[in-house]
Design a protein that fits this description.
By secondary structure, this protein is α/β, with parallel strands linked by helices. Among the domains are: about 160 residues, Glutamyl-tRNA reductase, N-terminal domain (Beta Polymerase, domain 2, 2-Layer Sandwich); about 140 residues, 3-Layer(aba) Sandwich (Rossmann fold). About 60% of the residues lie in helices and about 15% in strands. It contains 17 helices and 10 strands. The strands form 2 sheets. A 6-stranded parallel sheet has the order 7-6-5-8-9-10, with helices on both faces. The chain has a 4-stranded antiparallel sheet with strand order 2-3-1-4, sandwiched between helices. α5 packs across α14 and α7 crosses α14.
Length: about 450
């Protein structure tokens, strides 16, 4: 299995670059189809969240040029993109994926949303037909490890998410939220999470607006808020002390002229915008207005640092779990690498055994059932003893990561390369059939 990861995240790239790379849910199937056409790509997924855009593939041959894929898809010149990209291969790529799924690489350490986002990316890739059997096995394992981390450590204990940190920031800015009005722009999962945390902080009132009014109304009803038609957003926004924008919009929603109008309607009472959308939906230019304060997702990092400090011990325990599971998974992979050769060797020897018995039957005459059973047991025992040594050597080599040297020698000695290739192709076809019927 050859695994590659290329991407950017909140550590490696500024928000301005991440939002240019962001791939919306609607665009994802087309992007995956383009990825699958790249030379060397056997299967892949694309993970695009507010804090990262990553391409994870199983590759063939010398591998795939994923940097070029990101450059071609985004239109960002490679000199502007390359300094912010990270790339992992093989062990490091698998380790990175396990850490991402376990929320050990998140801006908010231990936040639970990333696992759901990885699962969604996996589901889209499967539905688009770009998931290879081996990459499927890797992703499935990452989900199990993430669950183990959350079960066996307290790294995710407490209210930790980008939405919760946004609410924490709102409370830090205004003190008590009891008499404050908060406007949620967008009615997706992030807005729902923010609403729950606002209610826990005793917020005075919540307004919800979305392009999809039905979703806004449903969210508002569930939290005791009020839904507003999107067409009335600018007329009603000045009512809010805090605007939390989590809209999945491809463009800016709030511009400087909107801020000027809001301040006039509010008689210059201050107004706070917390933009947790990627791409951003609040123009940074609004921050130049006296009385308007704009915070984007990168501005949340100071509050995040406080959460991270409190979870450092649990994070170390989680990292230890991931490290153990990484080596266990790689050991299983190495064992799987020798299985086709072992199976082909057994089949080759069994074919020779049956062929030789058939050739000798004319000389043996008619045999009783007891004699037939004895002949079968004797010849099978001889074959098993002959191949016991090579099979044991292959298993040992797999455990010690030395199978790459021994496999070709065994295949040449026993003339099983063609049989192994046929068996491997059949296994891959069966794996795809199994996945399709799952």
């Amino acid at each position: 299995m050859k695994i590659q990861v290329v991407g950017v995240n909140h550590h490696s790239a500024p928000l301005e670059l991440r939002e240019r790379l962001a791939i919306s849910e609607r665009q994802l199937p087309a992007a995956l189809t383009q990825l699958r056409r790249q030379p060397g790509v056997a299967g892949g997924i694309i993970l695009s969240t507010c804090n990262r855009v990553e391409v994870i593939v199983e590759s063939r041959g010398e591998g795939a040029n994923l940097c070029n894929f990101l450059q071609e898809y985004s239109g960002i010149p490679l000199p502007d993109l390359q300094p912010h990209l990270y790339e992992y291969r093989q062990r490091d790529a698998i380790h990175h994926l396990f850490r991402v799924a376990s929320s050990l690489d998140s801006m908010v350490l231990g936040e639970p949303q990333i696992l759901g986002q990885v699962k969604e990316a996996y589901a889209v890739a499967r539905n688009a037909g770009v998931m290879s059997p081996r990459l499927d096995r890797l992703l499935t394992r990452s989900f199990a490890i993430a669950k183990k981390v959350r079960t066996e450590t307290s790294v995710g204990t407490g209210a930790v998410s980008v939405a919760s940190v946004a609410v924490e920031l709102a409370q830090d800015m205004l003190g008590s939220l009891a008499n404050k009005c908060v406007y949620l722009v967008g009615a997706g999962k992030m807005s729902e999470l923010a609403a729950r945390h606002l209610l826990a902080r005793g917020v005075g009132s919540i307004l919800v607006s979305s392009r999809n009014y039905d979703r806004a109304a449903q969210l508002a009803q569930s939290i005791g808020g009020k839904a507003v038609h999107y067409e009335e957003l600018y007329e009603t926004c000045a009512l809010a002390d805090i605007v939390i924008s989590a809209a999945a919009a491809p463009h800016i929603i709030f511009r400087r002229q909107h801020g000027e109008r809001f301040l006039t309607l509010r008689r210059n009472r201050p107004m706070f915008f917390i933009d947790i959308s990627v791409p951003r939906t609040v123009d940074p230019e609004m921050n130049r207005l006296e009385g308007i304060f704009v915070y984007d997702i990168d501005d949340l990092q100071q509050t995040v640092a406080e959460y991270t400090a409190n979870r450092r011990t649990e994070a170390e325990r989680a990292e230890a779990i991931v490290a153990v599971e990484l080596e266990r998974f790689r050991s299983n992979l190495r064992t799987l690498d020798v299985v086709p050769t072992i199976v082909s060797l057994q089949q080759r020897m069994e074919s020779i055994r049956k062929s030789e018995i058939a050739r000798a039957r004319g000389r043996l005459g008619r045999l009783s059932s007891e004699q037939e059973a004895a002949l079968d047991a004797i010849t099978r025992g001889i074959v098993n003893k002959l191949i016991h040594g090579p099979i044991s050597a292959l298993k040992t080599a797999a455990r010690e990561d030395e199978a790459g040297t021994l496999l070709p020698a065994v295949e040449r000695l026993f003339d099983i390369a063609e049989q192994k290739a046929a068996d491997s192709a059949a296994d891959d076809i069966q794996s795809v059939l199994d996945m399709s019927s799952a």
